Amino acid sequence: MIETVYTLKNYGKINIRLKEIITDKGISRSKLSTMVAMSYDLVNRYYNNKVTRVDLDVISRFCYVLNCSVNEILEYKNP
Fold first, then answer.
1. Residue 16 burial (10 A CB sphere; 0-12, 13-18, 19+)
2. Residue 55, helix vs strand vs coil
3. pTM reported for the whole predicted model
4. Mind listing the pLDDT tens digit for each residue in 15-68?
5. In the chain, where the domains are located
6. CA of 8: how far to CAs of 3, 12, 53, 76, 79, in Å?
7. What does the alpha-carbon distance between residue 51 and residue 49 come to, in Å, rounded to a whole number?
8. Looking at the chain, which terminus has fewer C-beta neighbours within 10 angstroms, N or C?
9. Residue 63: which residues within 8 A CB-CB, separation 6 or more?
10. 13 pairs with which residues across the strands?
11. Which CATH superfamily is domain 13-77 in?
């Protein structure tokens, strides 16, 4: 019997920079959740970079309300 060993490759990481953006703009998480019509809990997960799957609609709302680009919110970190 042949045993196959798979190794996971580190492709880097995507960071969500919402915390930095709203801090710079002086907007609270509570106010942002109202502005984007989302729950505070969801905004808080993006704020704390605790999201495993990014919703493009959510990112679109952030970009619109914060008047910024996707590149400002999402940042790729090379391994």
1. buried
2. coil
3. 0.84
4. 999 999 999 999 999 999 999 999 999 999 999 999 989 999 999 999 999 999
5. 13-77
6. 16, 12, 19, 18, 13
7. 6
8. N
9. 69, 70, 73
10. 77
11. lambda repressor-like DNA-binding domains (1.10.260.40)
